[in-house]
């Protein structure tokens, strides 16, 4: 029997939901409780199909743009990734009742970019082109005020207005190591470039990557539970590979696991991106227990106790 084969599972901690994701999901759920269905949500509230489908079942309607929403007075929620300034402006023009679920740590980057701009600086944003968070951050300021840099190579060739008046910000869900290399390249080229008061990469991204680093060297393979469009989940796969576990894969849930891929694996690392709920981690563990004799070992690098308050309009 296959499930007689022993498999050691190193469970990375922290993993799964962060405070910003938790808050965003609560906002949609509380809006549904308070105002009934439908509640419209612009863009996936967080990048996780299971979460989005669960909220859709409760009455959330997901759209990509405001023009898909009728003028019916129903609540509209903006996703945790943040939106360009033009979006709330358009919502106000249409007198929509909107609730902003932008993660407070993303909002911090927005305010930072605005502060630099007010001080006469051009902003270099380190991030992934096309990611909703990057679109939202760039959309806080006029065209040309923010230039995007993705790689060390980009940092070496980016064109700026004045090398003496620059500041950089970063997307919150990047690889800590890759970003440090890009920052070093920018600083080498623009010696007076100003950085954030406090790291832009959020605590949850940093902690989840550190937890993967702690298990990668001991694991024969690594499974990261998360969505293909989730930046922080994809970074966990990359970090695992860089830190000694070349055999690393991203799965959305247990049904996506290719069991042949685990042949010859004695120690498996397991983690989940910041928008993946614990129920999916448990589902994967149960599926592993159905095929192997599993020994579970949690490897914890820190305790997280961050909580973000939900908007006052929903707290009542």
Description:
The protein folds into three domains: 2-17 and 203-300, 4-hydroxy-3-methylbut-2-enyl diphosphate reductase, catalytic domain (Cobalt-precorrin-4 Transmethylase, domain 1); 19-103, Rossmann fold; 106-200, 4-hydroxy-3-methylbut-2-enyl diphosphate reductase, catalytic domain (Cobalt-precorrin-4 Transmethylase, domain 1, 3-Layer(aba) Sandwich). The longest helix is centred in the first third of the chain and has 17 residues, at 19-35. The mean pLDDT is 97. Strand 4, helix 3 (86-93) and strand 5 form a beta-alpha-beta unit. It contains eleven helices and twelve strands. By secondary structure, the chain is α/β, with parallel strands linked by helices. The protein is flat. The strands form three sheets. It has a five-stranded parallel sheet with strand order 10-9-11-1-12, sandwiched between helices. The protein has a four-stranded parallel sheet with strand order 3-2-4-5. A three-stranded parallel sheet has the order 7-6-8, sandwiched between helices.
- The poorly predicted ranges are none
- Number of strand segments: 12
- Architecture of the largest domain, CATH level 2? 3-Layer(aba) Sandwich
- Please state the average pLDDT score: 97
Q: Determine the CATH superfamily of the largest domain.
A: 4-hydroxy-3-methylbut-2-enyl diphosphate reductase, catalytic domain
- State Rg: 21 Å
CATH topology heading of the largest domain:
Cobalt-precorrin-4 Transmethylase, domain 1
Order of helices and strands: EHEHEEHEHEHEHEHHEHEEHEH
Shape: flat
Give the N-terminus to C-terminus distance in angstroms. Answer: 56 Å
Read across the widest sheet, the strand sequence of neighbours is 10-9-11-1-12
Q: Give the DSSP E fraction (strand runs of 2 or more residues).
A: 15-25%
- Mind summarizing the main beta sheet? 5 strands, parallel
Structural class: alpha/beta
Level-1 CATH class name of the largest domain: Alpha Beta
- Please estimate the helix content: 25-40%
Total number of domains = 3
Number of helices: 11
């Amino acid at each position: 029997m296959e499930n007689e084969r022993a498999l050691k599972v190193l469970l990375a901690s922290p993993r799964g939901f962060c405070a910003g994701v938790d808050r965003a999901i609560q906002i949609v759920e509380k809006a549904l409780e308070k105002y009934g269905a439908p509640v419209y949500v612009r863009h996936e509230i967080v990048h996780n199909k299971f979460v989005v489908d669960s909220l859709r079942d409760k009455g959330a309607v997901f759209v990509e743009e405001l023009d898909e929403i009728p003028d019916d007075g129903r609540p509209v929620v903006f996703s945790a990734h943040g939106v360009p300034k033009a979006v709330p402006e358009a919502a106000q023009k249409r007198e929509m009742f909107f609730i902003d679920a932008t993660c407070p740590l993303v909002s911090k980057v927005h305010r930072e970019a605005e502060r630099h701009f007010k001080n006469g600086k051009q902003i270099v944003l380190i991030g992934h082109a096309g990611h909703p968070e990057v679109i939202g951050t760039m959309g806080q300021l006029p065209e040309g005020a923010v230039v995007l840099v993705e790689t060390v190579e980009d940092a070496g060739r980016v064109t700026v207005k004045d090398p003496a008046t620059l500041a950089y910000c970063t997307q919150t869900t990047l690889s800590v190591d890759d970003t440090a290399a890009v920052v070093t390249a920018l600083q080498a080229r623009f010696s007076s470039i100003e950085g954030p008061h406090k790291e832009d990469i959020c605590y949850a991204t940093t902690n989840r990557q550190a937890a993967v680093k702690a298990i990668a060297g001991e694991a024969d393979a690594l499974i990261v539970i998360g969505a293909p469009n989730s930046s922080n989940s994809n970074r966990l796969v990359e970090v695992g590979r860089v830190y000694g576990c070349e055999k690393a894969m991203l799965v959305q849930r247990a049904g996506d696991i290719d069991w042949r891929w685990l042949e010859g694996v004695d120690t498996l690392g397991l983690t989940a991106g910041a928008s993946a709920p614990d129920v999916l981690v448990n589902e994967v563990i149960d599926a592993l227990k159905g095929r192997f004799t599993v020994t579970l070992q949690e490897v914890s690098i820190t305790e997280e106790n961050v909580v973000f308050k939900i908007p006052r309009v929903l707290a009542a």
